[in-house]
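Quick log. Single chain, no ligands specified.
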Amino acid sequence: MLPSTPTAHRRVSSSLSATSRDDTPDISVPTNITVSVRLKPSLGPSLSSSSSSWPATPTTLSVPDVGVFSFDNVFGPAAPSRDVYASVAKRVVHSVVEGYHGTIFAYGMTGTGKTYSMQGVPSSPGIIPLSVSEIFAQVSFATTTISVSYLEIYNERVKDLLNPTVASDSLKLQDTPDGLVRVRNLRCVRVATGQELKDLISHGDLSRRTEGTEFNSVSSRSHAVLQIFLEKSDPLTRATATTVLSLCDLAGSERAAADAERRKEGAYINRSLLALGTIIARLSASSAAGDSHEHIPYRDSKLTRLLQHSLSGGALVSVLCTIDTHNTAKQALAETVNTLRFAARAKNV
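-> predicted structure:
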């Protein structure tokens, strides 16, 4: 069962409805948004025996000379990945199986455990593989088919990670009869097992865009969006409804290395992250106030446009921000505080 208020959710209709035009009002806004922060996981003895100098509780983090931040969850360096999944993602995954859209974001500077939190390692799987396993354990294959797409957005251009040779110019966002925003010509693969889905993800990861930054030589410079589509049919009426779980590993939030191309990509990243932060903050404020009439600027970036129906209309949204409190370099500290402010803005505090 979903531990949510009845007014905050609306199950996806089983009937196919006409899609909205650009000038139509925004769809219903109320949503459920949770925001969590994870301190860089302890992956070795050098970190496992040390503790952060920033006092933390399960819901607060105190930053010297800045203040106290409050979130739905604060995970220390020793928090197991399965505990992070249970608090950050499990409820969202269950909601998708039950008929709602859901989105999970990972945001943070490179090297803080963002991709580790999403993907994990074989001995400690992260949010994505645990979500896949949960879905295949929960769905009824007598009435549900599962398909997957995997893309990245780099400099506001879409790349198909499952078919990287297709031209970006042919990958256009469009409204579809199932009430979603999809990418025309994007490969979408039907899968029968969790392992098949995980193998597709591993294949797609090989094509992700990475570049050097001031903090890491292989920083992710694109937003990677894995979308798992559950199409459920009613055996009596033959009506169908599609719900989507969107798992988003966002581009590293730090400043790029100081050359013209990296500055250009950094500007695109900052613009899209600003658009995302603005939308989540407005959704959070509208949900708290019970007001569904405020304009939400989904079209300010391709990321938010793609996820429009998975961010509003009763969807569940979970944001996980990762930080490294052990990196005391001045610029790293500034980037960490920026991450926390993004999280606080998303939480509307």
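Confidence is low (pLDDT under 50) at residues 1-8, 14-27, 45-50, 212-218.
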